[in-house]
Amino acid sequence: MIEEGRALFLQIAESVEDAIIDGSLAEEAQAPSTNELAAFYRINPATAAKGIAMLTDKGVLSKRRGIGMFVALGARELLLNERRSAFADRFVEPLLIEARKLGLGPEDLEQLIRDRASATAATTEGNPR
Q1: Residue at 1 is within a domain
Q2: Labelling 62: which of 19, 40, 52, 105 has CA 20 to 30 A away?
């Protein structure tokens, strides 16, 4: 899981976010502790704490004194909105700029996406994973 070239605390925060988004860590559920994360990823507890602090600052996790960290209500929706916005900035905006250069309108793009999605589905259906 650990990626070279990216700050470890960001990777820790992202892995917790991923668990919240995919539902394996539900809202109001107890989040892994700093020590659990440090042991699992074999990193310094201070590094794990920095990732957890980042999520707390964002309002994704909340601390319950004497009990631990918990996923905040609304955390999943907050993260989904954040990721959707980042997706639009990273992929959709450049797509629209290039489409404009090529003279493609929204309907053309929609058809291209539908065609590619169908082709991808057809090729992956025959490939068990």
Answers
A1: no
A2: 40
